[in-house]
Fold these 4 entries.
Entry 1:
Amino acid sequence: MEKTEYKLLKGNEVIAIAAIRCGCDGYFGYPITPQSEVMETLMELKPWETTGMVVLQAESEVASINMLYGGAATGKKVFTSSSSPGISLMAEGLTYLAGAELPCLVVNVVRGGPGLGTIQPAQSDYFQATKGGGHGDYRLIVLAPASVQEMNDFVDLGFELAFKYRNPVMILSDGMIGQMMEKVRLSPEKPRLTNAEIEERYGSWTVVGKPSTRERHIATSLELDSAKQEKFNQKLVAKYAEVTKNETRYEKIMCEDAEYLIVAYGSSARISQKTVELAREKGIKLGLLRPITLYPYPTEAIREILPQLKSVLAVEMSTGQMVEDVRLAVNGKIPVEHYGRAGGMIPSPEEVLDAVENLIWRK
Amino acid sequence: MKEEIIIAGFGGQGVLSMGKILAYSGIMQDQEVTWMPSYGPEMRGGTANVTVILSDDRISSPIVNNFDTAIILNQQSLDKFENAVKPDGILIYDPNGITHPPTRKDIKIYTVEAAEEAARMKNAKAFNMIVLGGFLKVKPIVKMDNVIAGLKKSLPERHHHLIPMNEQAITRGMEIIKEEN
């Protein structure tokens, strides 16, 4: 049997490679630290010479997201990447994409904010990613990779979900996962879909020129009839319920006998996993629940494990955002505390352990 | 086996690429690896450092506070990381440019005069491989065959003719590393 080949790659680099390999049709972006390697890698690999994938540096983030709107409307697999301030610029486009039910993938390699903030890693865009960012009643499907391997895997998964539900998907990463190198097993290569294949799969909604045999398709989020708009809103609600039922993903680490639980995603989950190891050495029964999808959030998974727990600590590189979803899941039954660092500071496993011990002591 | 290493020095000394070669060598022997660089303001001039972890098992945090080994290539990094070495851990440094040498008694301290040796070899680019050689003499965590295989993987093909030079530099580093305490 052939030995699996592993590559040593940065999270940002693997996003680019995975996109080419999964048959992506186009990338439109604008550089910003700490994710500029995504476009750099694409430009270096020149996929337009091999798969025919388009790579374009737009004049701004606003232009990029609207190029995605155009590409997505024709049923093409399109994506962009940026970091926090750039994602804010894309917020309008994202809500239009959600409103027009168009599929696309957006990678946010988060840096500290608010404003221009810092170029160091943070998780302070949780609210923006999971609760909106743009206006109106819409949701993004949000995937939170905790390793370079997951950066690879979630590109293909992200596109699958985007097309399955006709909804924008966001990979919410951060500077740590983006800049770190780990060993990666690349996904098998998939060819780009031909126009005929796109017509066959997505022909019921794509805007590709109207044949005389059907009504025209319009990719729009405008509906001036309130009754119709409400009906559309309810359709979205039903869609999000379906997404929640089918796509909620999480990982439990050392939870079987846990009396205390850390809930953390992405980089913070990696750090907290070390904290669990350190706590176990001290005889503290600590477990980790790692949300992999941030929307839909693994609320039920937290509820299921509650009876065995004394308290919960939400660890995130923000001043307290995801902790609100933990509190909603726990619903006041046991104490929930937050431990966070901000501004690009990364917590150490030891300081998270201190926070856990404080929690136990206070109890 | 699990080894947590910090490599720190000036930008341009080959700190990040030394870490990359070490990480690739780990992959060659089926280990888990992480390579976490400083990419912040430091990268834009000044100090550079990278945390490399090699382990037989899944690696939890790629960021750690304490290291089994610190490989130090300038004074600022020595000031910053001397106290981050675990008790009984190892500190390797190049004395070139060091005005305040390390003073800890509970760790093993080694020097490798890599800058001087690279000058003698008339090849400034051999510097980081000489340091790597010194480290591998003290901590043979990766086999030389795997380092060479790692070099082949991490260098573009057009640079493969440089591999024998790198091997020679690594061997030289192994020869010149000195125990200081």
Note: Chain B touches chain A at residues 20, 23-24, 27, 32-37, 39-41, 60-65, 153-154 (CB under 8 Å).
Entry 2:
Amino acid sequence: MNDDRPLLSVTDAGHRYGDRFGCRNVSFDLWPGEVLAVVGESGSGKSTLLGILSQRLRVDEGSIRYRTARADGSGGREGSAEELLELSTLSEREVRRLWRTDWGFVHQNAAEGLRMHVSAGGNVGEPLMANGWRHYGQIRAKAEEWLRRVEIPAERIDDTPATFSGGMRQRVQIARNLVFEPRLVFMDEPTSGLDVSVQARLLDLIRSLVAELGLAVVIVTHDLAVARLISHRTLVMKDGAVIESGLTDRVLDDPQAAYTQLLVSSILQG
Amino acid sequence: MSAPRIVYNEGYLDEQTKRVVRRALLKGVAIPGFQVPFASREVPMPRGWGTGGVQVTASVIGPEDTLKVIDQGADDTTNAVSIRAFFEKVAGAASTTRTDQATIIQTRHRIPETPLVENQILVYQVPIPEPLRMLEPRETETRRLHALEEYGLMYVKLYEDIAKYGHIARTYDYPVLVNGRYVMAPSPTPSFDNPKMHQSPALQLFGAGREKRIYAIPPYTDVESLGFEDYPFEPQRFDRPCEICGSTGVYLDEIIIDDRGGAMFACSDTDYCERTAQQRTEQQSTDTKEVTA
Amino acid sequence: MYVAVKGGEKAIANAHALLAKRGRGTADSPRIGYEQVRDQMGVLVSRVMAEGSLYDPDLAAKALLQAQGDVLEAVTLLRSYRTTLPRFGITPAVDTAGLPSERRVSATFKDIPGGQQLGATFDYTHRLLVDELETTDVPPPDVPVDEPMPRVAALLGVDALIESDRPAEGWTDPDPGDLTREPTVFPMTRAERLQALSRGDEGFLLSLGYSTQRGFGNNHPFVGEVRVGEVEVEFEVPEIGHAMPIGRIEVTECEMVNQFVGSADVAPQFTRGYGLVFGRAERKAMSMSLVDRALRRDEFGERSVSPAQDEEFVIAHSDNVQATGFVEHLKLPHYVDFQAELVLIRKLRREFQERQATRESAAHDSTREDTNRLEENA
């Protein structure tokens, strides 16, 4: 695998809401298999950053490049034709292709990431069908395999997420996002809104899957414990800017910025 | 002020409108299965009663054409009669009930049993041209899905059927993939008729008046009914013959004959049924003659 | 031999004869002349003209008679005739502000230049049913109306309290298109949307407009102005090189003034919803202006939460000729698709019963404990 270049390279990226920046001057590289946590309080700009990374919001400043081959190129994923491409120059067709083959997105609210009235098997099978799978037995077997990996009982495969608990829905959403073996997964507060014990179990699951599959992940969270548990590196955001970044252990054990120190101590006290 | 005199153009649609429709048809033929927007006009029948088919027929019919109109496979159902009478009145076209003598066949919900041949045109009346409509009601979104060839959603529907019933539970307006590119709604013809669309020597034109869309399948085009490799498309079948003409492998109407649940089954294609029955009678009389001789 | 589906031609002829008979009523009562309908049922004629998209009171009256009073049928008749007429050209926009109104009211200001003028209105009549109508004498007006009547919105415009009715600079009036002649796709331009609304069903628009007042897409409306009057229509004649007056039409116009809190780039100001309809059609013009404003949500970055704000929903369902045709087509024969469904439902029922039988025998055979479905455990 061609690992001498980052998978995602962000330089001075920013997004403006009217005359105010939601986030600004954000720069980092994300390498294959790396988990990056973006932490901050509500309103810190972490969700805006996730929005521009995932092409849901416009990049008003700076650049975001992703390592891929042009859709018409013959290089394929790991071929020599791969280059760091400016995301804003990609056509809608190419961006949609990336969502089918390379990128996943796990929403905080499972209802946004799932078809609540399609069976769990259909939900997990859909990305495969979108990628041209046309063998029912194989689609179903793959869906079964993934539901098992996220610890959904096999007999629930034909039930709809509408009948599932919050934790189960999140696990179906994860299966739906990993079944096509993406390279990069965005996660937006995937565990908040769940009971504490359910959260811990889900985080464990995410951590082991990410390691197994060698996924690159950008996870947005307000919860430093989440960052500590699953991320290699952490960005701390405040008022739309990155105020500290580094290896997660370093940032959390030896915070440099006063704000990070405050965040960390509040967790300890809390 | 004199009272206005109401006059209609020859052939009802004016030539300019016919040209507009023909341009849409040409585009449709050039991009098989693609829904071409057109400025659908009002015609003197209600929307949803074949106004798209009527505009298509009016734009392709000429004095040398012979028109057949069927509804539910039959030439004598009221709406078919009404549309045929309209064209007799405004276009002066010759009409027929015989599939093999027609150059243009306008249809609602059936494809004739008699195989179509080159130089015939089959005009379908289409209520909902968008095969993804019931999965995604928004046209802005479905147009994008077609453009980007994203048909995963359509297969989710089929997947759900198999998971629930063990087979695909769709019996009419069964979606097809045209020329390997566009997923298309064949109009509410029974899935029984789907195989007839594939590699048909006839030109197939589709008009959706209310929805303002035209699409087409040129002759000898691949039309594949969607399915999975291990659960392929299965057209509906009847395991009995027509009780009038004895044909097997044809689409049957179930006709209630009493109030105790009694029913008989007969061809939905009345032209085919009559001629098969007639041939059989002739055959029998020849046989009898031979025996006596 | 089975002949139940035969005889369509004869059945249709019979039905037509019966229909004609029903339309005639008892033979000794006189037929209504179309002039009577035109002159004495003006509001109804207006509605048929508006939804039929053809300004011709004579033809609308004839259509109503031919349709035996069925409004949508009359609209269909008028439209099917209209569509065969050649389009010679286009007229410049009518000037609704420059002409005296028969009726003009504003709810936003007590007194306005040109004055409030009630005109012919059902407002403030007591809705008491009477046996015989009488025509009252119209007293001569106190003051002859010759004052100009500037638009109320223009008065607000002086201080930029209301959005301008066109983008400020560098704006050239784009060709609005003609949705009866050109294919339209979503999203539409506002001009196309207004065309569609103006010919849309009065009842549908009324309900949608009403829904915006009840919290489904509220936009805080005030009637800036409603006016009814005759305007001159001019026609661009290329051979002559300028516009020629070709006649007058009666229209109802409504400008609704709506609150807007502003955004990061735009100061708070009032916004507009617009309605313009053929003939006397105040209810329709007001409903149209409410719905127009609701549909402009994108321009003001408002959240789309209600049906009235959804362009595809509103425009695709506002045309009553389409709506009634498709709803009524359900009475056409559907033997073929119904047969397909019959075959399917019998199959599904058979499979269901087989599954159930298997399940029951399995339950008898063993005393397996119930498999509790695994729910998320805390």
Note: Confidence is low (pLDDT under 50) at residues 73-79 of chain A.
Entry 3:
Amino acid sequence: MQTPTYLAAELRLPTNWLDYTILGIYFVVVLGIGLAARRSVKTSLDFFLSGRSLPAWVTGLAFIAANLGATEILGMAANSAQYGVYTTHWYWIGAIPAMVFLGLVMMPFYYGSKVRSVPEFLLLRFDRAAHLLSSILFAAAAILIAGVNLYALAIVVEALLGWPQWVAIVVAGFFVLAYITLGGLSSAIYNEVLQFFVILAALIPITVLGLKSVGGWDGLSDSLTESRGADFMTSWGGTGIGSDNPLGANWLTIVLGLGFVLSFGYWTTNFAEVQRALSAKNLSAAQRTPLIAAFPKIFIVFLVMIPGLVAAVLVPQIGTADSDLQYNDAIPYLMQQLLPNGVLGIAVTGLLAAFMAGMAANVSSFNTVFTADIWQKYVVKHREDAYYVRFGRLITAIGVLASIGTAFLASSFSNIMAYLQTLFSFFNVPMFVVFIIGMFWKRASMKSGFWGLIAGTTAAMVNYFVIYKQGIIDIPTDQGANFVSAIAGFVAGAVVMVAVSLFTAPKPADELQGLVYGTRSPGMAEPPAEGDDAWYRKPALLGWGAVILAAACYIPFSF
Amino acid sequence: MSDHYSERDLQREITELESKSTTAARLFDIRRIIGGLFVLYGVIVTIAGFTASDADIDKAEGVNINLWTGLGMLILGLLFLLWLWLRPTAPPPPPVLPDEKKETGEG
């Protein structure tokens, strides 16, 4: 989730007609999905939430694919080349518990209240101030992230295929624009499911061949233990409080900062993710969406971490001044070194698909929030439904054009973009505080939501930009500082919410039905659909199964 | 504020839109696309594996990676088509108007 830095120019891939044929077929299929999905769009609910009618396995794989953008794949491989097996924390503690919490605890409120977006839930639970603030910030962040994704794609495509940056930006932008405008969220989700399988077909050969080239897991482990020390190959080694490790974080900041605050903020309140679950066909399918996604998430870490570790063996100076290769080049480097034409085409297609899906997830959530939360509620109200479908298509086009603009801006001001991204990331943290207190404490007042958001964001930013950047407290790395800032934002948001609630009026109890723990919304009484009572579809079993499996995965990497 | 937006308004609005929604009835089944694309990719990459040069195989650590990846993709594609064949898309349930539901359900 950080902007990849520049790839070295000598990473040019030896692509031929075969690879371009494979890539061309993919682009045709992407457009075909958009065209074919077009006839299913009649109401605004079809366009923005697929009519709340998709099966759980589709929304589940889209949920994971929306997160598995190319910046995530390249970034986590980079993380592994730099910090080693610590990367597993971003998956096993930094994702699974939050995904399970979303499915088991929060989804009944989200799905049962029939909200169309995360900000809309804030409107029902709190007031217009909290709603408008979160809608505007989310819309701005989505465009920014889509633009940064597009820029990252342009850099990678320029290095690997030799296309000029503007060509890559315009081509990728056009395809995303076309298929979302045509088919709405259904088209975005279907493309994400397809992308999920293509990216697996790309990463598995890279991982297998990479391992083979360094003498298997034992060879990898031995040579990195020798060059980087024993802690490099463990998850928890060197994370005692007060001891020094390359990540700059101890077990407490990892568990609280990454595992609790940052991860719950991202997975449970980021609408680009939650939207996938809201498009499921019933409450059971919505609950299972993040739970089905959790299982691939547990194992995907190996497909990004191993290539990163292999690159650290093959190019010991990676990421330092002695080498032209940046940490972010780990996967492209292995593609160049190991893949013959054919599989190389699959890998290039997978990478491009992942960039486009990462952008499309942001665009398809942006258009929903902008139309349903901003335009329909504050600007042009009470028009017929067809008007909002037309407006949704128009704003999709405007959103894509704006992110193309952002991508061009990012190419000249990449530092500013990195700052802005950090800034927006701090907004997720108080969102989570406000949700968790709002859902579990009836007394939390209407005004407390807005002030909790403001206080938490401010505290996280002050901690990061003033206390850490000015060197008032000493944290060795940006990652470590991120974790601490998240904890500060969480605590400040919670304290302010409680304080404001004590002095302002609570929301009347009859307006909280289905929004607070222990109440039910009027629409939630629907009976389970046929077949949903099968044991393997029980949300509790799936959720706890994922948590136990993730904990078990830590065992071989803890000693 | 005069136009206060409550949960009841939202429930009514979404329920009405759900009854008019056409996604369930008209959206195609994604299994067909995944199956078709992976069979096609599988065939292309498998052929590249059969015609692989020594240089290709040496590059990939002595593994005919095109052959194995191609076969893997082909099998995945066929599995999706098989799943579609065994469990075809369920026809959408007939729309039930909320009013009828109340009348038929006794007590």
Note: The radius of gyration of chain A is 23 Å.
Entry 4:
Amino acid sequence: MKRILLLTIFVASVLFAHSQNASLKGIVLSSENKEPVPGADVQAGAQNTVKTGDYGDFTITGLTAGRVTLIIRHGSFTLYSVAIDVKEGANDLGTIYMQPGVTPDSDENESINVVSLSSMDFEDENKGQNTGAVLHSSNDVFNSSASFVFSAMRFRPRGYDADLSTVYMNGIPVNDPESGFPSWSEWGGLNEVMRNKEGYAGLEPSGFSFGNIGGSTNIITRASLYRKQKKVTYSLTNRSYRQRIMGTYSTGLMENGWAFTVSASRRWAEEGYVEGTFYDAYSYFVAAERKINAHHSLNLTIFGAPAKRGMQGGSTQEVYDLVDNVYYNPNWGLQNGEKRNAKVRDIHEPRAILSHYFTISDKTDLTTSASFMYGSYKTSSLNWYDAADPRPDYYRYLPSYQYEQPAIMQLVTDNWLNDPEMSQINWEEMYQVNYLSNGEGKQAKYILEDKHSDQMQIDLTSVINHRINDKLKINGGLELSSYTGSHYKTINDLLGGNYWVDIDQFAERDFIGDSTSLQNDLNDPNRQVTVGDRYGYDYEIHQTKASLWGSATYTLPKLDVYAAASGNFMSFYREGNMMNGRHPENSFGKSEVQDFINYGVKAGATYKITGRQYVSINAAYLTKPPKPGTSYLSPKVKDDLLPDLTSETIMSGDLSYMVRYPKFNARLSVYQTYMEDQTELNSFYHDVYRTYVNYLMKGINKSLHGIEFGSEYKVTPEFSVLAAGAYGEYLYTSRPEATISVENSSVNDTTETVYIKNFFIPGTPQLAGTIGLKYFTKKFWFFNLNFNYYDKSYLDFNPGRRTERAIYMLGPGDTAIANITEPLKLDGGYTIDFSVGKSIRYKNYFISINLTINNLLDNQELVSGGYEQMRFDYEFKRIEKFPPKFFYAYGRNYFLNVAVRF
Amino acid sequence: MKTMKKIIGLTLVAGILLASCVKKEFDIPPINIPKVDFSANMSIKDLKDSLGSQLLDSIEGDWIISGIVTGNDESGNFYKKMVIQDTSGAIEIGIDKSYLYNTFRRGQRVFIKCQGLYLGNYNGLIQLGYKYNGSIGRLPETMVDGHLFLDSLPGPLPEAKVITLDNLVQADISRLVKIENVFFETPNVEYAPQTDDATNRTIRDFSDNTMLLRTSKYADFSASSTPYGVGDLVGILSLFGTDWQFYIRDLDDVVAFDTVGNPPIGTNLVEELFDADPTGWVTYSVASNQNWAWSSTYSCMLVSGYGADVGSEDWLISPAIDLSTTTNAILNFRTWTKYTDGGMAAPMEVYVLTDYSGSGDPTGATKTLLSPTLPAPHTQTWTGSGDVSLAAYTGTIRIGFRYRSSSPAASSQWEVDEFKIKGTR
């Protein structure tokens, strides 16, 4: 709070008036077809930003005479930047032509291998990916590097988790309510129609929301904002999918006041970059807008992206070495000669958004949107009852497990080296085991199950933007949301078996002779289930949210200031649909409702030293409610909450220096963020307890600070050099308290202190840098070459290894203590990316061809991430027993894109 | 409406373009009926005999045996092992793999290429496996596929060989056997409490032969109770040192322990082994200054009139036994005697007392003489009484042992031990 006070005083004391008497107007058209470009951001100076209207028109008022940099941004076009001398009074720039975008067209998230595991050994994967969440307009060199270059290494700007960036669509927040992560998969493949967006990095103020610590992005899908065109795109790549076809048709705003846009795509691969990963995705999109009159416009957008994909799983270095392939995937095996993946993610989360755009006056706009989303999200995995673990890289099947018997170790090694079947799932054997069990009238021993997380969400938001005068603008809004997440399992495939019995096999062994405890549902005990039946667990998380926010920006010739505040109410509860035999009292029906009230404030200022140099400062303080996903100890079986559930607190500030010259622009930022009272959940399968173990930490404090730098120097009008880099120190600053909850309750919940103070936060390189060369020719050729370097990435650690329990019985000074507790830094590395493109105009056809090759030198030694297994050999302290699992960044990969517009 | 047509048209075109497909439906594998293309060249008996007196031997010869799985780890009573049997014999195979039974079902024919495996003697039990620390251990999982081969689908099991407890032979070790008409010495207790890794329960036949039934605490029936009554047991015969052991595979191996019907005898209502000075027993001397007493030397009840003041009449009377809920009660005990009382043809008599008060002189009590088998004079051999039927009694009774001597000098010595009454509740 101290920082904020200081900042406020600073900002207030430097406020001084100056006269602004110049204005600027113009019309923005596409250079190709001379069509207007509506919805582009036009910026003159640091804070004077307006949007172009339906005819590409804009007017900026409140300018001071003198030289300013005019910047026009639009997702479909290359950044337009020019320095102009503004005279007093009205300045008319006439027509400005923008070049259609020729930036590499690759899905931001497709260059990252999406793996089936995050920090978890075997348990549910997080929905959404905790990866670089930058979706900002990419006119900032650093931000665009973070989006397109660093993301391959799972770089997270400023070390923030993805839930610290909020993505909106037409004003509706679309982050997953339970995890807080943006749900990219909702609109996968709809790249063409998701380009219109306004993005704000970090704490920058926005007109559509209070914002978030890591920035906020609003994707705008108004049909009238798509320029009239037909476009077909074909892509060929060797990443997670092989081929993509996209088609889009937009009418633009027609004379009858209607505008339509439809888009559809197909992305597919029999096998992606990683063996055994197929990809089978569609998408559809319809937007219809009716401009009723000058004041009212209605837009309806409906879209969805049904996608199925085979997932990759991480493995240990021992296995990678045995099979001599760092992209080894343990998730698949041959069935009748075809590669079958056991972990298939199947998502379809369609959404409809109805928006009302109300221009009350030339000073006031009111935008109201209602959204309905009803989605299914499921991931398959193997389950087995009283049978051998079917995972090929299960630690007991590896040579290292036989470390006491070298002769047998050699035999196992030979088998791995000589028998390719050793390293993959043996589907045929599982069928045979089930057939034999059928022969005795018994249940299936192996099944494929689906873990579902279905969502139903209704949102209503309203945003008002009002310009009080040329200096003062105010924004405000209301966000309401009601959410239900349904979590349950169904049987996907009995693998030749006849039925499955819905009891907890782990409890069966732990409570011998007790026929109650082993029941998953006492309301229907010993139920025989078959394909499609719900079983195991079945519960819902209900969440209601309401928030109110407001912001104001005040613009002066030398100084722009803003302030914003928000207040939020959130409540959630669990509703169980099964009465669990271990927890008959608190598993069935509604749990107690948890309520939280939170608030946030932020403020900032930009001081214009000259028309080309700026200093800006931002600060924020906010509290966030706990996420339902990390609030329950074992939500599958009971409604026990993490003790003393509290809101988390975040304090953040940054200071930036920016220069914008016609030939050179740069930004240098320093930032410091404190987070307090966070919680974190790790779930993993424990093969001795034979159950899932939930390891929940609370009271996690973090400190994240660092420097960001991005610059571009135009050597000639055609040739420029870019440099961007980030250096951060992301640290844990507390000793969290962990609660360990064993899902079958064979062991009581226990708590312990985790000694991770001053550990680096894992999961992102804390050092990343790139140097890029850009070459555009007048004949519409372009070349890009990037040299990238990453380092200071840490392995996701097992908190259990940093406890008294882990080093129990080890004397002071025992070298084993360091081996057990010290975090592991991953090796740094470099990659080279290259892209080339060409735009051609043939009659009325505009053709653009791009080829991007990432990791040109095929560096296959870059660990992009990994995690220590959550199990630890507490008895003998052998860390080798459960070695860490790693993921490697893709080797050389390409993306070829051909687009035709007409 | 031209626009709409265009939209529809484009959608159609897109639809056709999108019709490329990613295969994701998988054929269901057929039931695999395994078949080996070689045959066995050695019997299980010959394989076991090849060990001779060695404790561990590696198998060098290209020997192939074949047998039917008769026992496996399904219930958890066997851990990481299974038993196969051919007509000549049977053998246990240790395999370092859990859930063997999913593949090696009971009734499955298995061929084993023995070359490279080890044969060992574990405390009298000959097993097939692999060496471990110089003695016989389990076959590593990684070797299973190269040595064990399934042939055809599981079929019927070989019929369990009926054996009797008085004729247990080496050749039957590991064989699937059946023991008829036996009972649990202690009914209604857990097969294997979780306090011990494994628990022995005594089974007994009517000739008083016993054997240990051994159960692991990991058996899924470990918490079930041993039955009352008499029945048959099916299972695997085993040996540990000099102790014969018997393993049932699951509770289906406990057959016909019905409390109704014949044979009638089951449980011990009373069991007094006189391992300590018994409580509740009455000793009453009608004549002479000597009496029954517990012998700490021999752990039994002992009486002798030798050197007394006059000829003896001494009673040993059991505690009250309620037969009201018992049918077909049977008395068993054993006696031993030394010296000959020339003046007394029956120095020992056994009675049922039906109205004895529980103390004092039993002379006036209503009593019926029983006819147990008793030893001849001076035989000095423990002699079983045989089954003495108490079926005629339905109320509360006591058993009385009346010892008499004709004179102090001519008296015989008697001992009584292992007093038991069994019956069907």
Note: Chain B has a mean pLDDT of 88.
